[in-house]
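Minutes, project check-in
Item: structure for the 255-residue chain
Input as provided by the requester:
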Amino acid sequence: MRLLFVGDIVGASGRAVVKRYLPELIVNQQIDFVIANGENAAHGKGITPKIANELLAVGIEMITLGNHAYSKKDVLEIDSSIPLVFPANMEGARRSLSTRVVEIKGLRLAISNILTQVFMDYVDENPFDVMEDILEEVDADLYFVDLHGEATSEKIAFAYYFKDHLIAVCGTHTHVQTADERIIDGCAFITDVGMSGPFDSVIGRDVQEVLDRLVHNKHTRYTVADTDSMLCAVIIEIDEISKRSTSIERVQIRP
């Protein structure tokens, strides 16, 4: 079984680069299932019903979110049947939809979205406790986690702690793809998958706007950079007999 996980999709240009490259990636890499983080898909913060459907139409089969999950009010208008995964340990009306189970090649895959604690707001439960609850309550053959957070140490510690129970821990949120992909006793891990969004930017935002804020202390908006985008993702191969991951490969397509 081969999974493709696409890193944080940022704004219109991020959606455009996914539309451009995803279909050929699915075919050329013989992908069985596509997951993507879409928490920045709507103008850099949040997601809307229209954009969720737009992403699903191009081949994404499950959309995970993160700390910006509720940034757009109409996210609560999205029907619960739409495959969105909300944070399990963040205040919000849709936290019951924090794990989704799908069947792929006869195996049940549970896909969860969990926030880390360090430097993160609105987190109301320890991610380790949340994962323990998921493993106890959700019946599945395979467990995949989008671990959304800042601290690199917290992410890899989580992977080592749950390595015997999970087939993958894929970090998101920082928008910078890390070069530490590895297999930990059958669990695929990477600290951050990276961003699918504007390449010439500050993690997706307009460069001058960020400089005005950091250097001149100006009040600025969250403006997505108007530049060509890169696509960041990982491909994870899972042995269907042992139900363990055997490889993880980074994908980075620059403008």
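Outcome recorded: The CA atoms of residues 14 and 26 lie 17 Å apart.
No further action items on this chain.
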